[in-house]
């Protein structure tokens, strides 16, 4: 059944969002409604960035009680977003990292180790998601063209942009634990411009920060090659997802205030992906006291090269924004001090 769309008023910066209902189980049917809203500074919503998937594999969702067919890939994305942001479905909260995601909305940070009071707050939130295939009237060529042009505005307005990588495999959980372990061990500014000169002990050949996690690339108990062990098999699967092979879709997510990735029901903050790339490049091209030389040749050319460049650019923009805020704060304090002395 097709959706009965009401025409959007572009002069009012109107967009449509899917307001998704909670569910008891991950695979419960998706029940939602389309709401028309104005894009304002206080609008709260999540934008989904995703490939559509195989058009032959479909699933029904229910919009205001009426069945609508979408691809199974997108349906799985919505189900897992629902599971993450209505966490009583999966009964799990995201692993608490050593450093909570910088720049993320407060309610998103609460997912990482939420207490009982915060869980109630998360459950009470209205889950609104922008999914272009559904929120844009695909039969209205004028609207499709206009919303495509407005996509930059939509991704920038969203509190969170989620890049959907697809469902988990048997090795995903252990792989994501490995990514988080690398993130926790790595100094906050490792790889940033100028950090190598400030902290040479954290770079080639010493790599002091990596000593506590050398078990990640230690051969298995039976002498297995490290990169053939489950955690690296899972990492390789993560890095070779089709999502990362599409530059245009990565350019979309790079517009976000806070981009993140979702694989199954596991959230992967963008910086974990960037840091994995930086670490692999460091060990591939520079000698190390903690990383075996023979393993360097086994590090494949990173399939995330495009993602690395874009996320590196995002990190640069974030640093510039932080510097601007600090500069403005300094000016404000100086002005205040001057006035108080007059």
TrEMBL record:
Q: Which superkingdom does the taxonomy of this entry point to? A: Eukaryota
Domain Heterokaryon incompatibility: residue ranges: 128-252
Q: Which Pfam families match?
A: HET
Q: Please name the PANTHER family in this protein's record.
A: ANKYRIN REPEAT DOMAIN-CONTAINING PROTEIN 39 HOMOLOG-RELATED (PTHR24148), HET DOMAIN PROTEIN (AFU_ORTHOLOGUE AFUA_8G01020) (PTHR24148:SF73)
- In Swiss-Prot or TrEMBL terms, this protein is called Heterokaryon incompatibility domain-containing protein
Naturally occurring in which organism (per UniProt): Trichoderma semiorbis
